[in-house]
Amino acid sequence: MFDSDVLEGPDAPEQTLGNTAPSGLFGLELEFATGSLGSLSDAELVDAVVGFERLAAWAAARQAAVLAEFSQRSGDGSVRAVSASVPLREWASDEIGMALTVSRGSAQVRLAQTRRLSGVLRPTRDLLEAGRLCWSRTRLVCDRLALLDDTLAAAVQERVLPAGPGQTWAQLDAALRRAILALDPDGAASRHRAARAERRVDVFAGEDGMATLWARLTAPDAASSYAWLTRLARGLGADDPRTLDQRRADLLAAVLTGRLVLRDPAASDTVAVVPVTPGKPLITVLVPHSTLTGADDAPCELVGYGPIPAPLAREIAADSVWRRLFTDPLTGTVLEYGRTTYRPPAALADHIRARDITCRAPGCRRPAATCELDHVIPWNPDGTTGEDNLIALCPAHHDLKEHPGWQTELGPDRALEWTTPTGHRYRTGRHDHRVR
Q1: Which are the contacts of 341, defined by CB distance < 8 A and separation ≥ 6?
Q2: pLDDT tens, 51-105?
Q3: Cis peptide preceding 87, ω within 30 of 0
Q4: Regarding predicted confidence, which is higher, 225 or 354?
Q5: Distance CA 139, CA 121 (A)
Q6: Using one digit for the tens of pLDDT, what is the confidence trace for 366-375?
Q7: Of 383, 354, 389, 385, which Cα lies nearest the Cα of 371?
Q8: Which among 9-18, 310-319, 322-331 has the top mean pLDDT?
Q9: Phi, psi for residue 59 in degrees, rounded to 5
Q10: Residue 117: pLDDT over 80
Q11: Separation CA 165–CA 153 (nearest Å)
């Protein structure tokens, strides 16, 4: 991720290789500045990495403009042909495919993307050319909006694009899906019904005697299945030498091949695998109260997956197996916690996880339900155990925070400021529960 929520002081930030507008001349400047890498400081190396990323985005945007021009010339045969006897038209994808060493199909997709980036998605291409959005995320915008008409695509783009430069690929993907659900709820529900009808299981051959078992399920079923499998794996105990991933894989294979039958642990005639915690698997679904009551079809959120259509959220909420978080669509404040089928943690921990939703490290989307709660100011000697000093962090980022040179500060608005060992600063905000 680059061009994210880098903090700025009261004055304009000092110009570095990481914030200079990309151009052909900037490419020469980068080449000159990095000619002797050993002479650069750690911070300068990070800035150079960002600079090259921005330059690559600029080059991709310029290439997209060239491809769009080539594609448009081949669109109706009315403008310049290759020669008097060879009009472009249908040969465009073949020509570009051969030139770039890609398949004809890939070239067709590339040309279609660049045409749209020169049309309704031109604001997205402008961000790419400014080096503020990488090609991977630009392609994501094209892919997610490919089936939408220009009017709807423009509306989704307008809603999502301002925050795009500061988001990872996964965060931008979630924002795009959420915006599509909000602006086209009927179409989203229809697409979900069609996709649900395609649920299936498949197997793909791999290397070294391995294979992949693949399942297409509804998002709630997939999330719940994985959570339950994880509980079973952890229930095998700390003495089991296998990693958690290996345990999950072995348990899945044992259950599906009949080597292990899951039965009541109280039964005396079987050896049962007991989950680390009892009860049904926990998944968290954020549902605006107006959507739950059917007043609107605002997008909902399955934590750990992303936006889901309102009809699917209502279907989940109707089943008392699921935990529900009801939110105020005006203020984003958590109003009530469902408690019917899952024993909750302490009220304070529950509040922190509901507030943060995911790990508070920049770019991390691990659900807060599986994260650790960390004291920003260490409890020993003088940190307090309260809402103003607790955040959700996944184990990896919890460990990173404790390393020398890393600093975190939780502000009054619960925005978390990270300072890296090279002095770069980034900020993550608490989850906004409002409908967007």
Answers
A1: 279, 280, 320, 321, 322, 323
A2: 999 999 999 999 999 999 888 875 444 444 444 444 445 678 888 988 999 888 8
A3: no
A4: 225
A5: 11
A6: 888 888 888 8
A7: 354
A8: 310-319
A9: -65, -40
A10: yes
A11: 18
Which amino acid, residue 222?
A: A
Long-range (24+ apart) CB contacts under 8 A made by 378-386 are: 385/348, 386/348
Neighbours of 224 (CB within 10 A): 19
Average pLDDT of the chain, as a whole number: 81
Sequence-separated (6 or more) residues with CB below 8 Å from residue 63: none
Regarding predicted confidence, which is higher, 223 or 344? 223
Quickly count: other Cβ atoms within 10 Å of residue 330's Cβ: 10
Find the range with the poorest average confidence among 143-152, 233-242, 290-299. 290-299
Pick from 395, 391, 397: nearest CA to 431? 391
Mean pLDDT of 313-334: 57
- Pick left, alpha or beta for residue 294 (phi over 0 → left; psi -120 to 50 → alpha; otherwise beta): left
3-state secondary structure the chain: CCCCCECCCCCCCCCCCCCCCCCHHHHHHHHHHCCCHHHCCHHHHHHHHHHHHHHHHHHHHHHHHHHHHHHHHCCCCCCCCCCCCCCCHHHHHHHHHHHHCCCHHHHHHHHHHHHHHCCCCHHHHHHHHCCCCCHHHHHHHHHHCCCCCHHHHHHHHHHHHHHHHHCCHHHHHHHHHHHHHHHCHHHHHHHHHHHHCCCEEEEEECCCCCEEEEEECCHHHHHHHHHHHHHHHHCCCCCCCCCHHHHHHHHHHHHHCCCCCCCCCCCCCCCCCCCCCCCCCCCEEEEEHHHHCCCCCCCEEECCCEEECHHHHHHHHCCCCCEEEEECCCCCCEEEECCCCCCCCCHHHHHHHHHHCECCCCCCCCEHHHCEEEECCCCCCCCCCCCCCEEEECHHHHHHHCCCCCEEEECCCCCEEEECCCCCEEEECCCCCCCC
pLDDT at residue 283, rounded to an integer: 66
* Entry pTM: 0.75
Which residues have C-beta within 8 Å of that of residue 240, sequence separation ≥ 6? 247
Distances (CA, A) of 200 to 190, 214, 217, 257: 19, 8, 7, 18
* 373 or 158, higher pLDDT: 158
